[in-house]
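name: query_chain
kind: protein
chains: 1
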Amino acid sequence: MDGKKKGLFSAFGLKTVLKGVLAGLIVTALLLLLFAGVMLWFSLPLAWESVLTYAATAAGAFAGGFVSGVLAREKGLKFGAVTGALMFAVAFLTGLIAGRGVPAVGAIAISAGISVGFAALGGAVGVNKK
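structure:
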């Protein structure tokens, strides 16, 4: 160990998670822009909107968890899961502030599960990256 505390809620842990959240949200936003262009270009029906949104959420959460895992170098599942939970919270609150209303409970559960699960997986992969 290099002397720094690496607990989830230490100063180091908070910075690590916040960097992961930022990276994950950027990846998610870029993928949403790309998928919107794909939907427009290929005239895809609106039924594809939720599928592509979940795909962007999963990829962004994985990227955020991966960044957290690489930076933490230990406890990748925990750092990733916290990163995913914060990413979900940001997305949920942004939707509420934007006036989209409260989504159905099923949609909340799916989105939270995707965010936390894929970010935890990304954290585990990031820690074990060689």
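note: Residues 11-41 form the longest helix (31 residues).
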